[in-house]
Design goal:
Layout (H helix, E strand, L loop, with lengths): L23 H20 L3 H12 L3 H16 L1 H8 L12 H16 L5 H15 L2 H16 L12 H8 L4 H23 L5 E5 L6 H10 L3 E4 L6 E5 L8 H4 L3 E3 L2 H10 L6 E4 L6 H9 L5 E6 L2 H14 L4 E5 L14 E7 L14 H4 L2 H18 L3 E11 L8 H10 L3 E3 L3 H4 L12 E4 L1 H4 L4 E8 L3
Parallel strand pairs: 5-6, 5-8, 6-7, 8-9
Antiparallel strand pairs: 1-3, 1-4, 2-3, 9-12, 10-12, 11-12
Helix pairs in contact: 1-2, 1-3, 1-5, 1-6, 3-5, 4-5, 5-6, 5-7, 6-7, 8-9, 12-13
Length: about 475
Amino acid sequence: MKELKRRHKSPQPTKSTSSASDSKSAQSSRELAMDVLVRVEQQQAYSNIALNQVLLREKLPRSEAGLVTELVYGTIQRLNTIDYLLTRFLSKGLDKLEPWVRSLLRISLYQIHYLDRIPHHAAVNEAVKIAGRRGHKGISGMVNAVLRNMLRQPEKLQIPTDLPIIESIALTYSHPEWIVSRWLDQYGESETRAICESNNKPPHTSVRVNAIQMNTDKFLTLLGENGYSSERSAIAPDGIVVEGGGNMALSSWYKEGDISIQDESSMLVARIVDPQPGEKVLDCCAAPGGKTTHMAELMNDQGSIIANDIHEHKKQLIDAQAERLGIRSIQTRIGDARLLGSDYVDHMFDRILLDAPCSGLGVIRRKPDLKWAKQEGDITEIREIQIRILDNIHNLLKPGGMLIYSTCTLEYDENQAVISQFLEKHPDYALDNNLNHQFPALSRSFLGEGMLQILPHQYQSDGFFIARLIKQAL
């Protein structure tokens, strides 16, 4: 699955030492967050895009931007739990409320219940003021009554201990019940709880050093000299984890092509493809280009990578990344990956990467609205696309070549099941039993020979599945 736009850990808002009624900025921060949530709910806007638009437009100070970011992502992250608790204080339920009132109550409960650093009176007073400005006296009175009831009855903000296990995990860790049910079947209770809990933690920032023009050790030194706390990734050879770095895409290092922003799990894909200088590589679903450019860097920009994607605007993303990094070996094209087999001759490529379309359930911590937008039926539809692409491209690989299949989901039906079905239909392919020995740091994640499933809590990175297959020589 393609990498989603990065959600960077924003600076934490400073704890207020005065009444929020004295702070115009606190008012505006909460109201901006409320408006973003309304757009997400009513217009199906992507939270990261809607939030970034607001932050760029308003040019907020660092602490205010941090508060807006916290309220938007935190409220979406805990949405089903917030709604469950809110209904205890609303006689007519949430659905009868205007969208903005519903969002206002949601962010207010999030502050009261989940944010220790926000004084309760600040959350209540600001919500009442916003309600008075946006609505009428009746609405502001209702908001005031609901929130003050929360403060008087904190026991109503607790999840019952006697719920069935699926509902209990779903509400404790704020995930849809259908996802919890599937993960319980696949991973068991302990692992499911760990996955869900990890999904609610802010993702850290990790960057990939462009080996063509920058040395990893040198870049670690540069980070230290500029006041950054950083360390090498424990799992990705080309990765560096930067703590408190903010948006590294705004740095001169990013603009000059020294680094790319990429999750550690995602960085493993190109390493597992292991492309060599001079080879011909096909990247079937390449946008936005993180794995594509990484492969080019590993090839020292020598050889050829055909980077395919179905949309023109996504092709432009790949081109922009290649240009920024100074890479010339990538040739972008527009096309449906399900039809690639008819566009090229058999046995043309040394290596093929299918970073397949998927449900994306491994990247929930970066895009929390994903878990509420997806439906269980989506998995069946996506799996059919994955299988069709594999069936279409397998003849393009040279005998002895490598086919790498990756997704950013945790779903068995999109991962192991797809590979098993492909191998049954194509006996000239086999899983690469050398893969496990090449990445000993990932020993917790291997599924037998040639496949690994990274879970979010294992290395505090995205959930990813990667399989490497070898086409048997004739």
